[in-house]
Amino acid sequence: MENNEDPIIVRVGTFFLVMGIAVFLLFVTSDLADKVDFDYLFISVLLIFIGWYFRRGKAPPPSAGRFSYVNKSREDARNRKAEKLKAKQDLKKK
Questions:
Q1: CA–CA separation, 25 vs 48, rounded Å?
Q2: Between residues 90 and 53, which one has the greater pLDDT?
C-alpha cells in the first residue's frame, strides 16, 4: 500500500470536494431533466467550500526541478543585462 503522509484533515477535505462535485453533477442532471432542484446547488457549494477550507492547509509539493535549466538561463541573462546597464552608467559618469 502507498505510504501517504497527508494528515487526516486533508483527506477529509478531499472527500468533501469530491462529494461537492458529485452533488453539483446531480444539480446539472436535475436541470437537464427540467426539474431544477436548487438544494443540490447550495449543498454542492457548501461541500466544496468546506473541502477547500480543509485542504488549504496542505503544504505545496516540492519542486521537481524540471525547468531548472531554463530558470538558470533566465537568471544568467538578467545578470548579464544588469552588468551591461551598470557598465553604461559608469561610462556616462566619467
A1: 13
A2: 53
What are the distances in angstroms from CA 84 to CA 8, 46, 76, 77, 79? 53, 56, 12, 11, 9
The alpha carbon dihedral of 56, 62, 67, 70 has a sign of: positive
- Burial code (b: 16+ CB inside 10 Å, e: under 16) for 39-69 equals ebbebbeebbebbeebbeeeeeeeeeeeeee
Q: Using an 8 Å Cβ cutoff, are 51 and 16 in contact?
A: yes
What is the rounded distance in angstroms from the CA atom of residue 92 to the CA atom of residue 51? 59
pTM of the model: 0.60
